[in-house]
Amino acid sequence: MTEETPEHTLTLLGTVLAVQANYYKVQLDIGMGKRESGRVGEPESGRVRVIPPTSLSPHLPILLCTRRTRLKKIGQQVMVGDRVVVEEPDWTGKRGAIADVLPRKNQLDRPAIANVNQIMLVFAVADPPLEPYQLSRFLVKAESSTSLDVVLCLNKSDLISTEQQVEINERLVSWGYQPIFISVYKSINIDKTANLLKDKITVVAGPSGVGKSSLINILIPNVNLRIGEISGKLARGRHTTRHVELFELPKGGLLADTPGFNQPDLDCQPEELANYFPEARERLAVASCRFSDCLHRDEPGCAVRGNWERYQHYLEFLEEAIERQTQLNQQAAPESTVKVKTKGKGQTQYEPKLESKKYRQKSRRTQLQELEQLYEESEET
To answer: Is the peptide bond before 111 cis (omega within 30 degrees of 0)?
Structure first.
């Protein structure tokens, strides 16, 4: 604590590593040294140093924080990966309070995480065997969720031959992706993978049982994530990761493990689906479809339809996207059950709204019209 800056007035910047209940684990952007950038960090002999936000250096101080009531009242959600302002640090108890959330560069809903730099998909080439359809769903989901780079890691490469690796590599290159063949068990290409993660926030995703937790355990020693066994009947892994958390990489960077799931939902618009296939994007870059709203099924003059391996995947995903969009269009917005009533001195309050037209008093004009109709009917009889 410096003489001119009391501890209770310190404001710090940090990154949210984990969210559990109403508490937030925040890594601060400070280290030891001289004061820089006009910000103040952890006090020790009156000397502090602020690390730039883009430098995700390991071993920075971590505080367990709560969220200010003001943020709760305005509905400001705090997510893993958020850049936040922390006030009133308690260095002895390692506590603090989140006072503000900085604007997000991007945001993922599943998993709920912000400010991601890239997505690393982890699949196994054996035990369980690589399923092209499942891999295609994950790739489309990753492409449609964000505009981030996709790093494709294929684990358990020690269980297949060199010829099989060449065949799988050629296949995925034709899809538009350059895979990295790794083996956690044999420590194959682990250093190469670590270099791709340096100084970045990376989300690890993929189906259960392919070795995601094992890979994180070897990339980040002593993290000790739970590892599940492979189910005998379905050759799929059991779910082991229960919540999203960012872990520090030894050489800098943050890695987020996510709950494994076997079939991710596709929630993109039907007309946008082709943009999430590199093969389709390549065709559209050199030619145009005759119709601007072409869905690339049986329309004449289509530039996308043709002989490429994942075209059948595209058609199946398209039907799913169309069905989902139809269901959304058919769902009417529910009518509000409350109404706002203005009282004296500008005060407002919410009151239950009566069912439409059920208890509404008829107007005099309507009453007169109904009486006239009754007279006419009585005269006719």
So the answer is: yes
